[in-house]
Amino acid sequence: MRRATLRSILRGLVALAGLALVVYLVRAAGPHRVALVMWQARALLPVIVALELVQLTSDLVSLRLLLGDRSAQLPAATWVRSSAVAYAMMVLVPAGRAAGEVARATLVARYVGAPAAATAGTELQSSYVFASGLASAIECAVAASVIGPRSPLVLLLGANAVVMFVFAGTFIAVLWNARIGRWMGGMLRRFAITAADGPSPARRLPWRAAIVCSVGRLTQVAQYGVILHAVGGIASVRGTFLAHGIHLIGSTLGDILPNQVGVVDGAYQTFAAAIGFADVPARALSVALVARTAQLLLAGACVVVAAVTREASSPGGAAPSSVRADARS
Hints:
The protein has one domain (2-328). The protein is globular, with a radius of gyration of 21 Å. The chain contains 14 helices and no strands. 78% of the residues lie in helices and 0% in strands. It has helices at 2-29, 31-41, 45-67, 76-92, 96-112, 114-147, 152-175, 178-191, 207-230, 237-253, 263-270, 281-308, 310-313, 321-328.
């Protein structure tokens, strides 16, 4: 209990530090200027939120592909709720992506069994990380052609691509280790008390899910082009890739913070010149603020959806008969 309290306090302090950094950056850029840019960007906010929703949907499609025939065992309410919970946690808690996938797998495990849910969740995480590495690699090449191969932005994007590819490969290697796979299933059952058992899925490379996740990342690149235009920038192809690349760097460096608050903002302030905002830091900072506004709006909607669908998606303490039969076979 004491450790849990200390962790909560530490997370709170880290989150406060991130918020303090945002306040400092806004004050340095000029609160009035930042507010004016944000107000000007409001017209495109529905488009930005819609593109964010496409990314959420890409995760759902990827998971259906990874579960295969088992996906038919999940009620529609569980699909909706698991996606809503995963996205809300991704935005609102530290290391949100990993926490969201654990929560999603916990809900899914009630219907398809702990081994299948744990495997699909890890494969989805691997696919997403691979897509992030691919985007970083492309953006590294674009940045090198625009601002030179020795730029700190280029070096950071290159390093991020390597790290993402290593993590993606590590997730798959972990899944292919039978002992670790059994341990993961046991850990997941601790979270999902009503989860059913079942045979462990066969080894595979989640290439179809990786393609869908890459399309989701490409949608996010387009989203940052819209954001760049919304805050008064020039949404060229190169500028769009650079704006998204800065987001990826900030997201990786600030992963321990909820929504990477403060770190992503600082990244845009640091690399403002790369996206044409060297003399207008308020516009560079507003890229992060507009993106965060869209994410928080969608996350808030997801919290409401998760609450509304809670009872509908509950299996009532027992796994469906199809899963119980699968467990006995």
